Amino acid sequence: MVERIRRAGWMAVEAAALLIVLCLFLSIILGASGGAFITDVARNATQFLQAVPPGTLLGVALLLGLYWWFRGRRTN
Predict the structure, then answer these.
(1) What is the number of domains present in the chain?
(2) 11: DSSP letter
(3) What are the C-alpha distances in Å from 53 to residues 24, 59, 62?
(4) DSSP characters over 16-73
(5) What is the pTM of this model?
(6) Given CB 3.0 to 4.6 Å as the disulfide criterion, which of 8, 19, 38, 48 pairs with 34?
(7) pLDDT recorded at residue 51
(8) Each residue of 7-18: pLDDT tens digit?
(9) What is the domain range of residue 31?
(10) Beta carbons of 45 and 31 less than 8 angstroms apart
């Protein structure tokens, strides 16, 4: 039961991340004529990424990479 909830949660997170990336790409392609939703999501994402210091994003990416690397080694 917990495994199904965890899997469903990760699917929702992945879908949300894909939606944000899709809105960013559509905003680049369509520009201001993309609609209110696409431009608002793109503006919020860029404001968030500009507000976070670059070292923080790099640190989070490295920690996630190390986690997946150690997890892969443990299962083999």
Answers:
(1) 1
(2) H
(3) 20, 10, 15
(4) HHHHHHHHHHHHHHHGGGG-HHHHHHHHHHHHHHHHS-HHHHHHHHHHHHHHHHHHHH
(5) 0.67
(6) 38
(7) 93
(8) 999 999 999 999
(9) 2-75
(10) no
CA distances from 2 to 14, 34, 64 (A): 18, 40, 22
Give the pLDDT confidence score for residue 31 in this predicted structure: 85
Find, among 54, 32, 56, the residue nearest to 43 by Cα. Answer: 32
Question: Tokens 């080694």 map to which residue?
Answer: 73
pLDDT at 75 over 70: no
pLDDT 10s digits, 24-64: 999 999 988 888 999 999 899 889 889 988 889 889 989 99
* Phi–psi pair at 52, nearest 5 degrees: -85, 130
Q: Which amino acid does the sequence have at 10?
A: W
